[in-house]
């Protein structure tokens, strides 16, 4: 209380009390001072509360009541005090029959307990140090209850720290009790929201010519998202157009209702998306969109299959037949490496790797990726093609693979007909020199078209469904699709194969789901004049046990013919197809024109 105000109160009380509350005119017979006593004596009350006072005087009863200062509260006629404001004061009882008889006692009005909770209305589920507090009230106690969260600090104090248990609603309650044991309780809801997350942010296509339009696509969880430069809003699952004049980095910032944010970055490359025109056979080109080093395989004609007189040839390598490539194509110089797979897929399935249980093999991330199925290879290609915006990269057809392996030769082996192995060791890893492990790519001499490890080190998946002979094989080098079989074709040889398996015409088959430490793959990119498959999707993509009907939809530009595997066959005139699927099945769609052929796949999962 203000010291000046206290002094004034004392002066007023002295005036009221006369000579200390004693009778001053000597009217009582005994001449003894009569004293006014107030009950209760020094008193405390909570603001908003009431307290009944009484006064006693030997000379009689009947008193009027007052409090000083007056704004501390009010009295009723019968001495009930109602506290209006916090502070110190004096209760004054005056005998109505003789105002010279006055009694006083001190009073303290304590603040009413205040349980008003201060805390965010919305919080991130991963928030550290979420606070809730009530005003500081000396002498009071604080009893907190949290539903949907855990108190991690501050229990029993005016401020607590809360850890949310899950998304949803937290209910925070606090009971504040002042020194007079007067209590009040308040509750406060906090909506806990999921942390912001970004599942996709990329430009499609990722490589464009200067000034050409592309789009930035985003999928995220949050309440607001903007793209910089420009602070351009973007919807979840939506896109915004951009037309960069030079290679540009874009940043997506996603913020949730609690103000937490997360960012992701993507780069749109500006340049020529097509490889060089009319390169020499074996010319190398690094795709700026993917970083893959590609080698050119020129147009031409070759005899596919085992040459006559090859005593090691199997029945599935015949009959030899002519295949003509009207257009060249680009093939990756090496098999896809573990490092390339890891960078795109975020994991490494290989047996011969420099981490995990096989560190004894040494740190060689440039070994070919292995233990990948044909379907796994399609997943890799899907992610690779996502960077371009359409299905461009694919597995080679079996004809493309043998054509590239031979590189203009017509003998049993790329080096000739000698099966002694002396000429094989500089070119291929096989059972005579591999020490039963896979080796880093491109350590040995390439073939005449600058392709490394076409035979040896790891078998390679090709696009084709397997057929046991070449009767009716495509004469233009396309993949054999349309067969109702789960088996796919493998070409080349692996680190544990013998010399006969290094022959250019050797071929094998495995189910498309099989994973072996001897199997990898390489990729092909057709010319830019080939058809563009923009989309291939299944609705629904997952089916209950036993299967159900599913609808395939696709969009293809520039195709003169289209066909699909799993026994579907020609789909040139179609854009959609409804069929019944009873087991998990992958469908491959191929489209061609005079500039080459393209391929895309989709997998329908059936619950077991």
How is this structure best summarized?
The chain is 7% helix and 38% strand. The chain is mainly beta and 608 residues long.
SSE inventory with pairings:
Elements: H1 3-17, E1 37-39, E2 43-46, E3 50-52, E4 54-56, E5 63-68, E6 73-75, E7 80-83, E8 87-95, E9 102-110, E10 122-124, E11 130-133, E12 141-147, E13 149-153, E14 159-164, E15 168-177, E16 183-193, E17 197-204, E18 207-208, E19 214-221, E20 224-228, E21 232-233, E22 239-242, E23 248-255, E24 261-270, E25 284-286, E26 293-297, E27 300-304, E28 321-325, E29 329-332, H2 338-345, H3 374-386, H4 398-406, E30 459-465, E31 487-491, E32 507-511, E33 519-520, E34 524-526, E35 532-539, E36 542-543, E37 548-557, E38 561-564, E39 569-570, E40 576-581, E41 585-593, E42 596-606
Parallel strand pairs: 2-9, 10-16, 18-24, 30-33, 36-42
Antiparallel strand pairs: 1-4, 3-7, 5-8, 6-7, 8-9, 11-14, 12-15, 13-14, 15-16, 17-19, 19-22, 20-21, 20-23, 23-24, 25-26, 26-29, 27-28, 29-34, 30-31, 31-32, 35-37, 37-40, 38-39, 38-41, 41-42
Protein architecture, described:
The strands form 12 sheets. This protein has a 5-stranded mixed β-sheet with strand order 18-24-23-20-21, with no helix packed on it. A 5-stranded mixed β-sheet has the order 36-42-41-38-39, covered by helices on one side. The chain folds into 5 domains: 3-110, Immunoglobulin-like, CATH 2.60.40; 122-193, Immunoglobulins (Immunoglobulin-like, Sandwich); 199-270, Immunoglobulins (Immunoglobulin-like, Sandwich), CATH 2.60.40.10; 284-526, paralog of FGE (formylglycine-generating enzyme) (Alpha-Beta Complex), CATH 3.90.1580; 532-606, Sandwich (Immunoglobulin-like), CATH 2.60.40.10. Residues 1-33 have low confidence and may be disordered. By secondary structure, the chain is mainly β.
